[in-house]
Every structure is written in structure tokens, then in C-alpha cells.
């Protein structure tokens, strides 16, 4: 892809503390590429910033964590402007998923040796999402891993919060409809995911989850005790099936619960009793590094 102009969206408050503007300037000067930058603010929607750039640049590159990345993705999906990620957050789930270098200078250099990949997103009750929808303990884990804890211990914040929330979790009954098939089930955590990475270290939810297969993966964690969670981690690493996990795959998923439940759609918290979810195949243009041979 020939790039003449890049617009960077930089979150100055995201996880990493480093001279990102100096890095951008050095790389763009060396490549003779014109660039601009917009800086995010706490109470300004990043999606609105991104929308203002349509038609004004060849590429929107986001320096931030998954909060910024998912918001920009939601603004760009279905359109022609490609995006790129320069990982600047704590977990950087999407960057890991796409094989983008976690080092900022390496990620900037990789912009010039990449190709456009069309990746899937999802819609939940008409809200677009890039990574996943979580109900139950996974949702609590993300909402409760707060900024202060993330600043202090980084990714470990999610693990600490997971242990706290797991101990308190109560199973919920779910009625699922996956591509027309009804399933009555229950568990402590239900995830409808587009991406395989969870963002806690290199921990992947399940092997074989793809962001380009035109389908979403539904993962149910049935039990709430720590040994069962560790079993899941072990089974994922060993790529084996586990009796505490159920896994389905589909294009259209409806989740119904008896009472309104909190759910997380990427970084956004919502409440609903019925979640109508569908995949948006190949809807986002993402610049990704070419695979190393
Ligand atoms: N200038 C700013 N000052 C303070 N907070 C900001 C600013 N700009 C954006 N934010 C906040 O940053 C959050 C998004 O952070 P982002 O996901 O980019 O990084 P992170 O939290 O380090 O990453 P991760 O999601 O991987 O933990 C949003 O809550 C947004 O309101």
C-alpha cells in the first residue's frame, strides 16, 4: 500500500510512558511521509475524532489501548479508510491478535511493510464491537480493573481483578440461539468473541478463533472456582477440550436471560435482557504487518 499521509490519533493517557511524538516524527521524516496528529481527551469520543478525518488521509493510525482502537474501529467499519494500530495500551489485545509489534518504534516501521486485511466485527443490539461481548465474570473483570491498578501493575490488574470477581460469581441461566439452534444452559461467564486473544499475557481463549472467518465464537465458562479456571488455562495451552468450557461458533446469536444483565461490548458497559448479536464479515480495513517467512 502506497501511503502519502497518515493521521495519528494519540491517547496521551494510555498505558505506555514514552516520547511517542518524537518516534512518529523520526519515522515519518525518514520515510518522507506527511502526517498529522490528533490527541484524545478524557471526555471526547475518539470515534467522533476519527469520523472528522474521512477523506483527509490515507490511513488512520491509533496510538493507544484497546479502548481507543475499538472506538476507532467502530467509526471506520463499513467504510474505505484503513486503520492501523501502534500499541500504546496495557493489554493491546488487537495488536497481539494481528501480530503487530508491541514495541512502538517497531510498530511504526511496520506500517511501511504491511498489507490491508479485511477483518470481521460484530453488532450487539445495533452497537458495533471489534473484540468481544462479555457477560458474567469476564465483564466484571474488565470493568473492575481500574486505571490506578493498571498503572501500578499493568496487565496483572486483570488477573488480580479476576481472582476477586471469580470468588463472588454466581451462575446465570442463559437461553442461547445460535444460527437457529436453541440451547438452554448456564454458567458464570459467557463470551461472544471475534478475537482469540484475551489480553492477559499471551493467553488465548481457545485455539482456532479467527477474526477473518466470518463467524463469532461463543464460549461459556460453567463453574466459578479457581481450579476450574486453571483447568481452562491449562486446556487452552494444551489445546485440549475441557469439561468446564463449552464452545459454539455461529453468525447470528441471541442470548436471553431472566433478568437484565450487565454486559461489556469491547470497553463499553451496557445492560439488557436480550442480546441480539451478528457478525459483520470483513467490514474493517486494517493495515497489518506482512507475515515473517
Ligand atoms: N487526554 C486524556 N486524559 C485522560 N484520559 C483519557 C485521555 N484521552 C483518552 N482518555 C481515556 O482513555 C481511555 C482509553 O484508554 P486506552 O484503551 O486507549 O488505553 P489503556 O486504558 O491504557 O489500554 P487498555 O484498554 O489496553 O488497558 C478512555 O477511558 C478515555 O476516556
Classification by helices and strands: alpha+beta
Shape: elongated
Beta content comes to: 35-45%
- In total, how many domains does the architecture comprise? 2
CATH topology of the largest domain, which one?
A: Tumour Suppressor Smad4
The biggest beta sheet is recorded as:
10 strands, antiparallel
What is the succession of H and E elements? Answer: EHEHEHEHHEEEHHHEEEEHEEE
Total helical elements: 9
Helix content: 25-40%
From the alpha-carbon coordinates, what is the Rg to the nearest angstrom? 19 Å
Oligomer: single chain
**CATH architecture label name of the largest domain:** Sandwich
* N-C termini distance: 19 Å
What is the overall pLDDT average? 85
How does the SSE layout of this entry go?
Elements: E1 5-10, H1 20-31, E2 34-39, H2 46-51, E3 59-64, H3 66-76, E4 83-87, H4 93-98, H5 104-110, E5 114-124, E6 127-129, E7 132-136, H6 137-144, H7 147-153, H8 156-168, E8 172-178, E9 181-187, E10 189-193, E11 216-221, H9 226-237, E12 245-250, E13 252-265, E14 268-289
Parallel strand pairs: 1-2, 1-3, 3-4
Antiparallel strand pairs: 5-6, 5-14, 7-10, 7-13, 8-9, 8-13, 10-11, 11-12, 13-14
Helix pairs in contact: 1-5, 6-8
The structure holds adenosine-5'-triphosphate.
Amino acid at each position: 500500500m502506497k501511503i502519502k499521509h497518515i493521521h495519528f490519533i494519540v491517547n496521551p493517557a494510555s498505558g505506555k510512558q514514552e516520547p511517542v511524538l518524537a518516534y512518529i516524527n523520526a519515522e515519518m521524516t525518514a520515510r518522507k511521509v506527511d502526517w498529522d496528529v490528533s490527541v484524545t481527551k478524557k471526555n471526547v469520543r475518539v470515534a467522533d475524532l476519527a469520523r472528522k478525518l474521512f477523506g483527509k488521509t490515507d490511513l488512520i493510525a491509533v496510538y493507544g489501548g484497546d479502548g481507543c482502537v475499538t472506538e476507532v474501529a467502530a467509526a471506520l467499519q463499513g467504510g474505505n479508510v484503513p486503520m492501523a494500530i501502534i500499541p500504546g495500551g496495557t493489554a493491546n489485545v488487537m495488536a497481539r491478535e494481528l501480530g503487530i509489534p508491541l514495541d512502538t518504534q517497531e510498530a511504526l516501521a511496520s506500517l511501511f511493510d504491511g498489507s490491508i486485511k479485511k477483518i470481521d466485527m460484530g453488532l450487539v443490539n445495533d452497537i458495533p464491537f471489534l473484540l468481544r461481548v462479555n457477560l458474567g465474570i469476564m465483564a466484571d473483570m474488565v470493568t473492575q480493573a481500574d486505571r490506578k491498578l493498571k498503572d501500578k501493575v499493568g496487565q496483572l490488574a486483570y488477573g488480580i481483578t479476576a481472582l476477586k470477581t471469580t470468588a463472588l460469581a454466581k451462575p446465570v441461566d442463559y437461553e442461547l440461539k445460535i444460527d437457529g439452534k436453541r440451547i438452554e444452559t448456564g454458567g458464570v461467564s459467557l463470551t461472544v468473541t471475534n478475537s482469540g486473544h484475551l489480553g492477559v499475557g499471551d493467553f488465548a481463549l481457545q485455539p482456532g478463533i479467527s477474526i477473518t472467518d466470518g463467524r463469532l465464537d461463543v464460549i461459556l465458562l460453567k463453574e466459578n472456582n479457581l481450579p476450574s479456571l486453571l483447568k481452562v488455562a491449562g486446556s487452552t495451552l494444551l489445546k485440549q477440550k475441557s469439561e468446564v468450557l463449552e464452545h459454539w461458533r455461529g453468525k447470528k446469536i441471541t442470548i436471553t436471560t431472566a433478568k437484565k444483565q450487565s454486559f461489556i461490548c469491547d470497553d463499553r458497559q451496557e445492560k439488557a435482557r436480550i442480546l441480539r448479536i451478528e457478525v459483520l464479515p470483513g467490514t474493517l480495513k486494517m493495515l497489518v504487518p506482512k507475515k515473517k517467512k
